[in-house]
Amino acid sequence: MPELPEVEALALDLRGRLEGRAITRVHVAAFSALKTYDPPLSAIEGTLVDDVRRHGKFLDIEASGLHLVLHLARAGWVRWKDEVPALPPRPSTKSTLAVRVVLDERDGQTPGLDITEAGTKKSLALYLVRDPLDVPGIASLGPDPLTDDFTPERLAAILAEAGRKQLKGVLRHQGTIAGIGNAYSDEILHAARMSPFKPADSLSEDELAILYAAVRDTLGDAVERSRGLAASELKAEKKSHLAVHGQTGKPCPVCGDIVREVSFADSSLQYCPTCQTGGKPLADRRMSKLLK
Asked: Which SUPFAM superfamilies does the annotation name (predicted)?
């Protein structure tokens, strides 16, 4: 799933490609992706792109006062095409194409964006709105962890309000902190040397400072590494720098212990027992049932 660093890099890349370009057509190949009807999608045709920005994990293409907002969900992505087909895409259950944004012709080419979604669970969402806050997911976002107003005091207040909730869930809840998902919450907690199941309100002052630094450094470093990369390079860049997420069974790059996993119904988390849980493996109920 694209998270804050990848969406930030996508926004930067697309800003350079789209600013001042006209959107001539938007074709929806997966009708379930379109979540709004007013204004109609045709309203953005002929508009000029003014900016591309990020709100949490949402990508916002602003054009002549309208906002084409994308949430790429778990398996969505944006692909730049130097030349898009002349004919509109046909809806197909076999195709990964969800939306195509066609731009004005220049130098004999008609470029565009193909927004795709892999897998059978279709969660990608497209909104056309007059104000980004008209998108419910944006309106309910918590603070952005890389802005100046995300201070240690702000994080302390968030954790205190979360009470006994587990740190992992608090970090990745978009209404609490915007932009952190499953992967970077694993990476942040590994950097902070904290258990994903540690209660949010149990941190000492020193632990709070460590967690705050881990949030800012982990995300900030990922943004810097991704800056200037094309969309096609971002997935590989992310995977190449993950210490524990998606690394089950591999040695921890810090201590050499084996990275472990806890599985849930539709996701999993990864952690290092030596670095994060005092050497004790966390209970994995799903795996325990399979081993009985």
From this structure: Glucocorticoid receptor-like (DNA-binding domain) (SSF57716), N-terminal domain of MutM-like DNA repair proteins (SSF81624), S13-like H2TH domain (SSF46946)
- Going by their DSSP bridges, the two strands 125-129 and 76-81 should be labelled as unpaired
Quote the strand ranges of 19-111, DSSP E: 22-28, 47-55, 58-63, 66-71, 76-81, 97-103
Looking at the structure, do residues 202 and 251 belong to the same domain, yes or no? yes
Report the candidate in 95, 91, 100, 99 with the shortest Cα–Cα distance to residue 118. 95
Domain total of the chain: 2
Domain membership of residue 146 (yes or no) is no
**Domain span at residue 35?**
4-139
Q: Which amino acid is at 2?
A: P
Joined tokens for residue 64: 């002549």
Burial class, 103, CB count within 10 angstroms (exposed 0-12 / middle 13-18 / buried 19+): buried
pLDDT digits (tens, 9 = 90+) for 129-144: 999 999 999 999 999 9
- Give the mean model confidence (pLDDT) for residues 184-194: 98
What's at 165, amino acid-wise?
K
CB atoms within 10 A of CB 19: 13
Are both 11 and 132 inside the same structural domain? yes
With cut-offs at 50, 70 and 90, classify the pLDDT of residue 161. very high
Exposure string of 42-72, with b = 16+ CB inside 10 Å and e = fewer, is: ebbeebebbebbbbbbbbbbbbeebbbbbbb
Indicate the DSSP class of residue 101. E
